[in-house]
Specification:
Layout lengths: L5 H13 L6 E2 L4 H4 L7 E6 L4 E5 L5 E2 L4 H13 L20 H5 L10 H12 L4 H16 L5 E2 L1 H10 L1 H12 L7 H12 L1 E3 L1 H7 L1 H4 L13 H14 L5 H7 L4 E3 L4 E6 L3 E6 L2 E2 L6 H14 L8
Antiparallel strand pairs: 1-10, 2-3, 2-9, 4-6, 5-6, 7-8, 8-9
The protein binds glutamine.
Glutamine binds next to loops.
GO molecular function, one term: glutaminase activity
Pfam families: Glutaminase
Catalytic activity: L-glutamine + H2O = L-glutamate + NH4(+)
Length: 311
């Protein structure tokens, strides 16, 4: 297939999203997110050749929330490798991101690293023997390195507002602690989790951070972030589990590995072709960006980038 002409495609999608009538609902269960303007929409596409195309509010910073779970998983696999899969599964859950229902029958082993329970186990791994502040600093260094951007930081207001109200996550961490699948104090794993969710990035920064996943694990500097096999598997997990109980719908409509967050961001990967970030804060019923999903559907259709091919 010929190279798509990205600049007009992306500009048209941003224009269409401005006029979209159904923008979803901004997450309000985390007070720090409730104030975000639902009119926002941004998109950034970084291609394998290193060109970047942006439109809309692509430079505006937002809370990446659960998109951070991709970077945290990458770090955890670097620390303990496949031993991680003894503590976290790799099956889609078919349940909401913050669900506790499967954990009792499955003895404290979360279905996958992208639901909250799985991400909290990943945080427990990333604590290793470090203090939570050191572990969050390591993750921040990692995303800054991936994006080649030292300005990426954490929105402390979002982190502390979630720490004050994240009772379900507290319950998940304690429940898994009871099964011996959280090794540190639950408060420490949660502190890391709330801070990693509060990393703030723009679409451009997020698309830059995802480049290793489109490039068989390679950083643009030529360094290997992960092996090609590991990049392939992280992409597979994003495809199967990245949108919780809407992962099937996302695969059906878009056909790319993707990871969403309740801040309204989505990172999507077209392997070998592009790293894509979209952001629009209004969410659908499953907590994924309503317009972000629609924009990716149009992008996949107009570029033919779905891994299943076909427009
Ligand atoms: N889906 C999400 O982005 C959820 C992340 C959010 N910090 C939470 O734990 O509820």
């Amino acid at each position: 297939m010929a190279e798509p002409d990205l600049a007009p495609i992306i500009a048209a999608i941003a224009e269409e999203m401005k006029a979209a009538p159904d923008r979803g609902t901004v997450a309000s269960y985390i007070p720090g997110l409730a104030r975000i303007d639902p009119a926002r929409f941004g998109i950034a596409v970084v291609t394998a050749s290193g060109e970047a195309f942006t439109a809309g509010d692509a430079e505006m910073s937002f809370s990446i929330q659960s998109v951070s779970k991709v970077f945290a998983l990458t770090l955890a696999l670097g620390k303990i490798g496949d031993a991680l899969w003894r503590r976290v599964g790799r099956e889609p859950s078919g349940t909401a991101f913050n669900s506790i229902v499967q954990l009792e029958a499955e003895r404290g082993i979360p279905r996958n690293p992208f639901i909250n329970a799985g991400a909290i186990v990943v945080c427990d791994v990333n604590l290793s023997r470090a203090r939570p502040v050191e572990a969050v600093a390591e993750l921040l260094r990692f995303v800054r390195y991936l994006a080649e951007d030292e300005t990426i930081g954490i929105d402390r207001m979002v982190a502390s507002s979630e720490a004050e109200t994240g009772f379900r996550n507290v319950a998940l961490a304690n429940f898994m602690r009871a099964y011996g699948n959280i090794l540190h104090a639950p408060e420490e794993a949660l502190w890391l989790y709330f801070n990693q969710c509060a990393i703030a990035m723009s679409c451009t920064q997020l698309a830059m951070s995802g480049r290793y996943l489109m490039a068989s694990g390679r950083h643009p500097s030529g360094a290997s972030v992960v092996s090609p096999g590991r990049a392939r598997r992280i992409n597979a997990l994003m495809m199967m589990c990245g949108h919780y109980d809407a992962s099937g719908d996302f695969a059906f409509r878009i056909g790319l590995p993707g990871k969403s967050g309740v801040g309204g961001g989505i990172l999507a990967i077209a392997p070998g072709k592009a790293s894509i970030a979209v952001w629009s804060p209004g969410l659908n019923a499953q907590g994924n960006s309503q317009l972000g999903t629609l924009a990716l559907e149009r992008l996949a259709t107009r570029t033919g980038w779905s891994i299943f091919e076909g427009s």
